[in-house]
Design goal:
Blueprint (H helix, E strand, L loop, with lengths): L1 H10 L3 H14 L2 H14 L2 H4 L2 H18 L5 H37 L2 H12 L11 H21 L9 H26 L2 H7 L5 H12 L10 H18 L7
Amino acid sequence: MVDLWLKTLSDLKEPAILWRLFIPFVAAIILVSLMGYGIFGVFMVSDFVTQNPMVEEFNTWSEQAEQTIGAIPFIGTIILWFLGIVMAVIAGVLGVLLGSYLILLFAMIITGFMTDSLVKAVHDKHYPNVSYSGHGSMWGMIGKLLWFGFLMLLLFIVTIPMLFIPLVNAVWFWLLGFLFFRFSVVQDVGQVILPEKLFDEVKPLGNWTPTLAIGGLFMLSALPLVGLFVPVFAVIALAHYYFDYLSTMPQPAE
């Protein structure tokens, strides 16, 4: 995992990679930031969320709990004040986290058009003697991403009440975002580099080296604007991992 990060960082000084790193940044630094957090804010106050039966039931329970706690002599008000601060902090963290997903998604789309050239840059610099040929088609990959994204969106909608559970909400929705991000990058890079048989061997979530490396990079996406660069980092890291893996296989004769 650490080795992949170090290789990724060392590649950032390469001109062929460096200028591609800033394409998502230049394309989206203003527009995506405003739209990303703005759309999430509108979504959270929309009727779809506020009139959701599970959310309404939680709000009713929350109001009853506030009345019960507020009725406690002497310390009831202090407890409510403290809980209010905690909820405000958690809501702020969760808002930044989920808002950053929209920024990351836009950057992923842009980076997807550069995957082939990024992979080639890593290959030519570090693995010129390793032959590679991918599998599948662009439309096949898009279909897989749309299906997986639909499943993640459905799971998100079903678990909307978890937004109001402190700590659990941040962990749960970070995990949902990570699963989609990992699936997308693995599909994108793996389809460019590996034959289908080898890809099936390394793609499982339990393959911890790339999973932990991508997870560490994904955590950076919560930082404002950093998410614009994370997909490029992930593509480079996975390219190194897949080329290393491919280099252990017998190479075709010249």
